[in-house]
Structure formats: C-alpha cells, structure tokens
Design brief:
It is built from ten helices and eleven strands. By secondary structure, the chain is an alpha/beta fold. It is globular and about 55 Å long. Bound molecules: NADPH dihydro-nicotinamide-adenine-dinucleotide phosphate (NDP).
Amino acid sequence: MTNVIDGNAAAADVRAGIEDCVETLGAAGVTPRLATVLMNDQQASATYVSMKQQDCEEVGIAAEDVRIDSDAPAEELFDAVADLNARESVHGILVQDPTPEHVPDERVTSAVDPAKDVDAFHPENVGRLVADRPRFRPCTPHGIQRLLANAGVDLDGADVVVVGRSKIVGKPLANMLAGRGDGGNATVTLCHSHTDDLAAHTRRADVVVAAAGVTELIDGSMLSEGCVVVDVGINRVDETNEKGYRLVGDVDFESAKQKASAITPVPGGVGPMTRAMLLYNTVKAASEQTGVDVDLP
Ligand code: NDP
C-alpha cells in the first residue's frame, strides 16, 4: 500500500501549535503581525496574498495588506518596506513575487530586514541556511522537510534527487537535506533543465522531489520500486469544469503511485504545508524580536 501523504492534516497540526504560540505571545502583550506587500496586477498573486492574510487571521496573527500600484516608482515599494522594517509592531514582512520589471528582484530581497524576512530570501538568511545556522527556513522546503519527517522517511544517508534549482524551492531544499543534523544528512543531487538523462538520476533515488513547474514531468517509469516522491509542482491544465482548469503536479500521480512507497498528492500535499510554515516563521520572528519564548510546533 502506498502512503499518500496528507499535507492538510500535517498543516492542521502545525497550525494548532501556532495557535498555542500566539496565545503565549498574547499573554505577554504581543500580537504577532505579518505585513504582505503586493506590487503587481496578477490575479494569482492577489489570491496568494489574500490566502496568506486569511491564514494569519485564522490563527490570531494580525495581517497587514500593503498594496502598491504596479506602475508606481520603485522607491514607493522600498519606502513602504523601510517603514515596515522600522515599525516594532510588525514582525514579519513578505513582498509577493513577482515585482514589476522596473523593481529589481535582488534589491527587493535585500530591502527586507533579515530579522523580519519570513520568506528567508534575504542574502543574509540564504547564507545562514547554507552555513547550517538558519534563522528562518524557507516555507516550501521547510514544509517538505516536515512532511518527510512525519512520514517516517529516514534521510540519513539516503539518495535524494531534487528536480529544480530555484531560489525558493530546489536550491534551499537541497542545502537543507544535505545539511547536518535532523532532517538532513542525505546525499543530494540537484537536477535542472541542463541535466543529462534526468531519468537515470531519478531511477536510482530513494527520494525524488519534483519542483520543475512542468506538468507530469516524472512518471512511474522514472522511479525505483519503493521510493518516496514529493510533488511540489502546481500546474494548471485546461478542463471543462466550473473553473476551466484543474491543478496537477510535476509527477504523473497514478503511475508514480504504482512504484512509490509514499507520495504527496497535488493538491493537498506540499501546498498546505508551505502556508503553515509561513505562520511558523512569523511567530518565530515575533518571539525572537520581543524575547517572549514560545514552544514552536
Ligand atoms: P522555477 O520556474 O523558478 O524553477 C524551475 C526549475 O525547474 C528550474 O531550476 C529549471 O531549470 C527546472 N526545470 C524546468 N524544466 C525542467 C526539466 N524539463 N527537467 C529538469 N529540470 C527542469 O519554479 P519554482 O521553483 O518557483 O516552482 C516549481 C514548481 O513548484 C511550480 O509548479 C510552482 O508553481 C510550484 N510551487 C509550489 C509551491 C507549493 O507550495 N506547493 C511553492 C512554490 C512553487 P533551470 O534552472 O535550468 O531553468
């Protein structure tokens, strides 16, 4: 029997723990606060922001929704971030990706105070992660690490193949799984669009993480018997339903399930954990900035 890893249940556990932390902070007079900054006109980004706002409200984190016209001068965004950096009552700041072309991405990630950088994209936080001294773990890789731990996957010495080398998923995840200590100690291969013979890598892996953004890139024929599969991809495929589409991952679920001992579904796998780990980072930020200890889940 293949274990279909339930990301919704795992996320609900984390959220329950976060609610306890919020209560502890509240008793000490601290309301954790996350500010999201949106500077683009894409419907998907607006939806992501409102989901994050709603997630915060559900666990008692105050959420602030900063919106900037996409054609405003770049300085408007940087002034808004500087203002949030300076405000003691704001503990976490997140600038929703993407920003317009005239607002350089590198400047955005460097603008957020590293202590409030709940996405963990600031170069200081990236460096700390690589140095095995993380302040924040980026949300998606952290969620994946938790899902693997919950499923009882022993990563120590395991052969892990991560497909995708983005700054937000593949690269930090590869670092975390290869790092020292709990949830690490794996032997990690990082594949990308220039990798020769992807299947040769995935076929020998104990754990395959697919984060390429390519619909059903990996199928059962590319996997070894009994491997663990984590599907990060969220891709829209046209469908004649109410929405006009359905979501599929980077893995062909049905054929992969025939081979895998455990697999995350799309939706309901990595996605809910990504959202939960943002709440985790926000509460961690509030705790560290105020000196109020919490028992993080
Ligand atoms: P990016 O587009 O930033 O990166 C994709 C990576 O995949 C790149 O490194 C690219 O290689 C590699 N790649 C693309 N095609 C292939 C291929 N045919 N073979 C091997 N490697 C390939 O994507 P993200 O990391 O931001 O996101 C990946 C997917 O995960 C998307 O579907 C996204 O929607 C989803 N996602 C889901 C989240 C969740 O919570 N579930 C959170 C974040 C993302 P190269 O570097 O050479 O271009």
